[in-house]
């Protein structure tokens, strides 16, 4: 049998591409060697959000105590929480599998390896297709010093954490490392964050990052800038971490969260014309086509913007283009909203002022910061900060950068304004909802 399309990888992008292609009448097969749903469902967005929700319990209780409520300190049953998380992930795995089955997509379990541009080997089976989409995602990477060290965990491993440690050392300064630092700090764990650079979240607005650092949960996070881990050893019941400046940190858990690399190893791409970038990702053109004209790639494996909604839209766009070219949906891949689930959360879309200047756009900023009404009775500092980046030429909103407890929800709707190229005047003429924190961005 020769399939119209074989998709390799049943993550968000691959499943969407397979489903839409099948809807358009293509005969499709899906190859998967692990759980359905990919990184997001199994070791990414979904379990991370459950961890985040749990981490807010102490913060919420402290706030409601300020209202006069008598609340006992919580006793977290971590084992039960992990069991519930695993049960929900299994439910989602089944949903993804059912999507494929309900759309008459042939599911083949195993690892795919190209033996030519139109043939792959899965186990002992040779499968043929007119077109292929590689959607194998990514995997955690470790720095050279820590590669192969059995005492060091990755962002995949942490979702199977058996018990909460008292101390945790995290390597990294990107959003994965920072999210885990704030999640576990809010659960009362002392965090040592080791970062080789001078600034965490280096692609985000500087004022937003500074505001986040000042909101250090009970001063539980200690950041070691311009440092790297050179050695990790186990000593009795604790781990000893050595930094490049000879400093010693004793800890109960070591997490390396320095990013992810594309899953392209053992795909047999050397049997095709597909080209690989230096970081192991697959080279594609703007229509996600590789140098082999019938092989395409979407999602984290191309290392464009490694976010689940981006992979989904790439997969949908590509399936439309390949099998229903007359009704393609146009997407804005320039202004992609994103959220960082710290505490407070970060939400961002569009240009920072620094980016605007680099693009030779004459722009300015409007900002506001305040303590949200919900936190009125706490003696803490401001917990909310909003920033608009505006074109001087026509007042177009070029970027929105916010930090608040509701930033992730807000930025989804605010992003529509940036994509639609709305202006500051559009904000000003919109009637505010009072009393809300979000009205402050309308009246800014």
Question: Main sheet?
Answer: 7 strands, mixed
Tally of DSSP helical segments: 12
Q: Give the amount of beta strand, in percent.
A: 25-35%
Q: Give the distance, in angstroms, between the N- and C-terminal Cα atoms.
A: 62 Å
Which stretches of 5+ consecutive residues score pLDDT under 50? Answer: none
Helix vs. strand class: alpha/beta
Helix content: 25-40%
Molecular shape: globular
Average pLDDT reading? 96
Q: How much is the radius of gyration in Å?
A: 24 Å
How many β-strand stretches? 21
What does this structure look like?
With 444 residues, the protein is of the alpha/beta class. 29% of the residues lie in helices and 25% in strands. The strands form 5 sheets. Strands 1, 2, 3, 4, 5, 6 and 16 form a 7-stranded mixed beta sheet that branches. Strands 17-18-21-20-19 form a 5-stranded antiparallel beta sheet, with helices on both faces. Strand 9, helix 7 and strand 10 form a beta-alpha-beta unit. The protein is globular, with a radius of gyration of 24 Å. It starts with a strand and ends with a helix. The relative contact order is 0.13. The model has no long low-confidence stretch (mean pLDDT 96).
């Amino acid at each position: 049998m020769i399939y119209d399309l074989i998709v390799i990888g049943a993550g968000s992008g691959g499943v969407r591409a397979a489903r839409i292609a099948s809807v358009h009448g293509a005969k499709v097969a899906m190859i998967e060697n692990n759980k359905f749903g990919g990184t997001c469902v199994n070791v990414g967005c979904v379990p991370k959000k459950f961890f985040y929700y749990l981490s807010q319990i102490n913060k919420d209780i402290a706030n409601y105590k300020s209202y006069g409520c008598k609340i006992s300190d919580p006793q977290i049953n971590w084992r039960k929480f992990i069991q519930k998380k695993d049960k929900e992930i299994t439910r989602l795995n089944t949903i993804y599998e059912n999507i494929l089955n309900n759309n008459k997509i042939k599911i083949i379990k195993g690892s795919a390896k190209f033996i030519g541009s139109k043939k792959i080997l899965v186990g002992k089976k040779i499968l043929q297709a007119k077109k292929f989409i590689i959607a194998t995602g990514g995997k955690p990477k470790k720095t050279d010093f820590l590669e192969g060290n059995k005492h060091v965990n990755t962002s995949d491993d942490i979702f199977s954490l058996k018990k909460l440690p008292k101390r945790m050392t995290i390597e990294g300064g990107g959003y994965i490392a920072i999210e885990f630092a704030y999640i576990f700090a809010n659960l009362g764990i002392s965090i040592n964050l080791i970062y080789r650079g001078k600034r965490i979240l280096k692609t985000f607005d500087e004022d937003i990052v500074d505001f986040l650092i000042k909101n250090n949960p009970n001063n539980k996070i200690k950041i070691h800038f311009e440092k790297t881990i050179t050695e990790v050893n186990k000593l009795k019941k604790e781990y000893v971490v050595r930094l490049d400046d000879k400093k010693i940190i004793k800890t109960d858990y070591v997490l390396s969260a320095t990013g992810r690399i594309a899953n392209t190893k053992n795909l047999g791409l050397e049997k095709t014309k597909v080209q690989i970038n230096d970081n192991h990702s697959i080279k594609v053109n703007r229509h996600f086509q590789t140098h082999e004209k019938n092989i395409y790639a979407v999602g984290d494996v191309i290392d464009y913007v490694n976010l689940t909604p981006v992979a989904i839209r790439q997969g949908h766009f590509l399936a439309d283009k390949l099998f229903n070219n007359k009704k393609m949906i146009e997407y804005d891949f320039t202004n992609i909203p994103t959220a960082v689930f710290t505490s407070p959360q970060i939400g961002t879309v569009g240009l920072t002022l620094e980016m605007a200047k680099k693009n030779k756009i004459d722009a300015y900023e409007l900002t506001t910061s305040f303590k949200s009404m919900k936190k009125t009775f706490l003696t803490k500092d401001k917990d909310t900060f909003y920033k608009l980046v505006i074109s001087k030429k026509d007042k177009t909103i070029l970027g929105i950068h916010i930090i608040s407890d509701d930033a992730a929800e807000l930025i989804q709707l605010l992003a529509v304004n940036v994509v639609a190229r709305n202006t500051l005047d559009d904000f000003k003429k919109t009637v505010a909802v009072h009393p809300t924190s979000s009205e402050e961005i309308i009246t800014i």
